[in-house]
Amino acid sequence: MRQNFVAGNWKMNLTLPEAQALTSEIVQMLHDELLGADSPQVVICPPFPLLPAVGHLLGGGPTPALGAQNCHQKESGAYTGEVSAKLLQSIGCQYVILGHSERRQYFHEDDALLSQKLKAALTAGLKPIFCVGESLDTREAEETFDFIAKQLKDGLFHLSNEEFDQVVIAYEPIWAIGTGKTATSQQAQEVHAFIREQVAQAYDAQAAQNTTILYGGSCNAQNAREIFSQPDVDGGLIGGAALKSRDFVTIVKSF
Length: 255
Known about the structure:
Belongs to the triosephosphate isomerase family. By secondary structure, the chain is of the alpha/beta class. The protein has helices at residues 16-33, 51-58, 85-90, 101-106, 111-123, 136-140, 144-155, 161-164, 185-202, 205-210, 224-228, 245-252, and strands spanning 5-9, 41-45, 65-68, 95-98, 127-132, 168-171, 213-215, 235-238.
């Protein structure tokens, strides 16, 4: 069965001392306030240089787990400035975010490339958090469902059933990222339900039922409980609020 899940994407923020302080605060709060077998899966995704230090403070357990924000599609080679999935796994990463809208927009990553990155991540033993989502223009043109269906088909649905079982999907409406705008809980539910239907068609009903689908898009401590209460929303991929320990833990506790 799918699990409640909260991932914090720190993006390109924090120095080493700041990251150590934030991680220590989050770990202590989770320990004090969320002991129990039914606690959500928590993942922290810092920038590449901070991964070893944050991973050390997380302790290497199943939760809070360490995740990366991206990986290269090749295992190794002459790719200056890039980081492979194998390297990430070797330093303790368990998850990796792929297809974030900022990677698609600023670095021109398309679904063909992301399908290669997915394979590389899975081969290395990482669990991908695969992002899909539409722009404001796409939503206003009433093309949201067609757009997301294509992202899923071209980027994700080439995986085998066994590979797909390792994937978490994140719906992130681009118009709600870093803008302060948030999809209503009904809008989030509508798209999450659609994604689950697409999974059922591509694989089967069991796979759809078991797939964890996160909402990402200005989710914060004030609105998380309402968004997470929707039947097809299993948690969040959190940006700005993940940089504040109390806000992040409040979001984790929203279930």
